[in-house]
Amino acid sequence: MSKVDSFRDRPIPEPDGVKKSGMALKKVKEEYPDLEFANATVGVFHETNLNSQPDWYIEAGRLADESVFEERGKKTGYNFLVNPKFLESQARLIFGDKVDMHKIEVAPSYGGSDAIKTINGIAQGIVPCLVPTWANHKGLIETNGGIMIPYRAIDEQGNFDAETLKQMLNPEEVIRQTRNEIALRAFLSKFNVPASGTEKYTYQTIANDWVEGKEVMPLLEAICKNPYSIDIPKDLWPTVAELLKKNDMIVQMDLAYLGFAQGACEDLKFVRYLANEGVKMIVEASMSKFHSHYGWERVGSIMAVNFDPKEHGIKGKLLHQIRNTTSAIAERGQVMSTIIEEDPNIREAQRTTVKHLRENSDNNRAIIASALPKAARRFASKDAKGPFLFAPDGKNGPLLPYVFPELAEQLGVSVPENAKNFPNDKIRVAGVYSSAEDGLGLGGLRLGIAGISEATATDVRNTLEYAYEQLNR
User: Fold this and answer.
1) What are 130's strand-pairing partners?
2) Which of 172, 183, 128 minimizes the C-alpha distance to 150?
3) Is 231 exposed, middle or buried (0-12, 13-18, 19+ CB in 10 A)?
4) How far is residue 118's CA from residue 146's CA, in Å, rounded to a whole number?
5) Residues 6+ away with beta carbon under 8 Å from 105
6) What share of the chain is helix, strand, coil (3-state, %, to 5)?
7) CA dihedral sign, ordered 394, 395, 396, 401
8) Domain segments of the chain: what residues?
9) What is the model's pLDDT at position 20?
10) Which residue in 357, 342, 345 sits closest to 292, CA to CA?
11) Could you tell me which of 357, 371, 377 has the C-alpha nearest to residue 453?
């Protein structure tokens, strides 16, 4: 048996939390010498996509600069005057032109990730989260005292498990899952308790009492956000609304890829449905991709919907914070987003760009999927929508020598000479260690397919076919 075959047969480790996110690969083995499995992640980006802006975006920037300088001339210091227009524009975009601004509180944020981090830094609650999801969610939730509890509602064949979804919307069940080991680990970390060995278990009762008092605030992805691009089925929306209202829960709606599934109107139907059903929710929205800010500006918003103005406890604290938050950090981006939504010509051009990216994704998904093993194609099919193609499959593990030759050598996997220049210069490689709990734990191929050309997608397909051919000899 070759070393490559031996690597292929190694079992996936049991879930034990996220070890590291964003770590340089050459440091992975140094910090985790016993690591036997690394998630192979390939990010594909078209060069011009990172270094050019569409004409409509440039025009929005020009108009924004004129507006910002005009307002700054009227006063000194930071400019908060842009916030009201931006916040109303965000509310109208997400909830429609007839939105009642008296029933919604909106705050600006520095992108979608900042929105999640801000809310969970205030709430410091327990956040049940459907997995698979992106690795950064855990850090954003737990940095300031929150606790993320993963619920695997999507299996390896792309089937959605309704019972798992119901469990994560039951606060008593979530707290039960959190007690003992998870509670203790979170407590020791939060309060920096220097306990080791059996000594740490003296804090178990305190830790369990600590989590009992936390708010359970589920995090759901509004559209095509998780790696598989598998969304909560529409026939389960009434169940979600019923459970959230019955248990008086606040749900966090992560809205990062608006427009990339089926278009803005279709993509907002789940969020609007919950709002119309009276569900208390906080929408954590990103305009970074939808308005093409990514790499130039970071713009987002936080919206509290269906809250009672006289809320007490953590709900009241969240409402107060959102109501009184202003931001000058992304003021140019805020003005640009407002212009993009309010100028009919720019708005039409922007929607056309997103439509093109969406269609390009679907086309490239089909091209690249043809090179993937059969088991992985479910997540690359026309049923999955979104800017990424994620192919969880056991055969992606052996791709490690080709995508990460240095790490493969450190793990004792032989690296063929022809792998040292793989992939070619059209593909940029990035990767992190991932456990099964992280949600990416089957290994996989993550391809950013929205902004690449068909020629690049074809090149990726050919490269993958060659790699599989070499690895399966």
Assistant:
1) 151
2) 128
3) buried
4) 11
5) 303, 304, 307, 319, 322, 323
6) 50, 10, 40
7) positive
8) 3-50+348-471, 78-342
9) 34
10) 357
11) 357
Edge-to-edge strand order for the sheet containing 251-255?
Answer: 104-109, 300-305, 281-286, 251-255, 219-221, 126-131, 147-152
The rounded distance, in Å, linking the Cα atoms of 183 and 70 is 52
Phi, psi angles (nearest 5°) of residue 419:
-85, -15
Q: Return the CA Rg of the chain.
A: 23
**By three-state DSSP, how is residue 416 classified?**
coil
> What predicted TM-score, i.e. pTM, was given to this entire model?
0.80
Q: What is the pLDDT of residue 328?
A: 60
Q: Does domain 78-342 have CATH number 3.40.640.10?
A: yes
209: left (phi over 0), alpha (psi -120 to 50) or beta: alpha
Give the pLDDT means over successive 10-residue stretches in the chain (473 positions). Answer: 34 32 44 46 40 85 79 46 81 92 87 90 92 77 88 72 92 94 88 75 88 94 77 93 96 93 93 96 93 85 90 84 72 90 96 92 84 64 72 48 60 64 43 34 58 77 68 55
Alpha helix segments (H runs only) across 124-251: 136-142, 162-168, 171-178, 181-190, 204-212, 237-246
CA distance 90 to 302: 9
Task: Report which residue type is found at 457.
Answer: A
Contact at 8 Å (CB) between 86 and 108? Answer: yes
Phi, psi of 147 (to 5 degrees): -130, 120
Tell the residue number behind the tokens 């708010």, with chain if given: 215
CA distances from 265 to 80, 260, 450 (A): 30, 11, 19
Omega within 30 of 0 (cis) for the link into 423: yes
Q: How high is the pLDDT of residue 431?
A: 34
Residues 6+ apart with CB under 8 A from 353: 54, 56, 292
